[in-house]
Amino acid sequence: MEKCQDRCSVLIADDHDIVCTGVKFLLQEQPAFDVIDQALNHDALMQCLNQKKYQLLILDLNLGNHHTMHDIRYLSEQFPLMKILVLSMYPEDPYAMQCIHEGASGYVMKTHVQHELIPAIEAVMDNRIYISSKYRETLSYGMELLKKEKPSLSTLSPREFEIYSMIVSGISFKEIASTLNISAKTVSAHHTHILQKLSLSSTAQLIHFSLQQTKNP
Question: Which ranges in the chain belong to alpha helices (H)?
């Protein structure tokens, strides 16, 4: 693992202490690591990142009640020199590609940590994307394993933006249809197109996206 031979500092973020301990044990057997910290919740994660520089973040998708999928893009942009390797109980399909599209460098299922963690770390520290060979074989030809551009509201048409604004304000499809003098079916179709353009899959994600836009315009 040549990339880490000088000083490879690692932060393990997982809300199960036994997982952190197990991962730390595996890493301590490798000579390339000399700083291995752990964070058991989201607040501790952010505190560690703001106090110390890390080359690698091993990140669980759940930190208590906080789902970190929505943090990956932010973390990859705020700490561009830090690689993010997701270690999760969730299956690779569809979570691995979602994480990579947000900016993660790799994805390992916890059930495979014993055999895949070190090879995954070696790959991401060598600037390669890591997913299991078995999952890679299922991907469509030409599927891009890289971070996608951040979805933008500028991709929405004026009508779509109008409906988007009403939806995230908590107005029902029926009320939107009445206000705009269109059918509820048309509102639903616009809703579908909005989700597709913003790479989202539900109204809940749309509302979260809106809140993030407010925080980080």
Answer: 17-28, 42-51, 72-78, 92-102, 113-125, 133-136, 158-168, 173-180, 184-197, 203-215
Q: What is the pTM of this model?
A: 0.69
* Residues 112-151 pLDDT 10s: 999 999 999 999 999 999 999 998 888 766 566 666 666 6
Q: How many CB atoms lie within 10 A of CB 210?
A: 16
For 39, phi and psi rounded to 5 degrees? -130, 130
Taking phi over 0 as left and psi of -120 to 50 as alpha, with beta for the rest, 170 belongs to left
Q: Domains of the chain (ranges plus CATH)?
A: 2-136 (3.40.50.2300), 153-215 (1.10.10.10)
Treating both helix axes as pointing N-terminal to C-terminal, what angle do 173-180 and 158-168 enclose, rounded to 10 degrees?
Answer: 140
